[in-house]
Design a protein that fits this description.
Strand 2, helix 2 and strand 3 (73-76) form a beta-alpha-beta unit. It is built from 3 helices and 3 strands. Helix content is 51%, strand content 22%. The protein is of the alpha+beta class.
């Protein structure tokens, strides 16, 4: 059930959300789904954008919840991803 639900979430993201983000050279990745709360991280041109809280998060939430009733809330996780931190550490010679 969980795998099928995650596949459905990805389909909605691909059809409804990612094209909108792509207009701004952005994308998103799912960071977690638990107890009806979907957590996503904006990437590309949308990562770290100040409009994410005001505009993007509500739009993503609306599209996902309209299509998938099991999702009760969508939260855009902000901050630096682990992979970006790893790249920065490597560039600075830190491990």
């Amino acid at each position: 059930m969980q795998r099928e639900l995650m596949d459905t979430i990805e389909e909605v993201l691909d059809e409804k959300v990612r094209p909108m983000l792509a207009l701004h050279d952005g994308d998103l990745s799912i960071t977690g789904f638990e107890d009806g709360v979907l957590r996503v991280r904006l990437t590309g041109g949308c990562g770290g954008c100040p409009s994410a809280d005001l505009v993007t998060e509500p739009l993503i939430d609306q599209e996902i919840r309209a299509a998938i009733p099991e999702v009760k809330e969508v939260i855009v996780v902000s901050g630096v991803s682990d992979s970006l931190l790893g790249q920065a550490r490597a560039l600075m010679g830190l491990r």
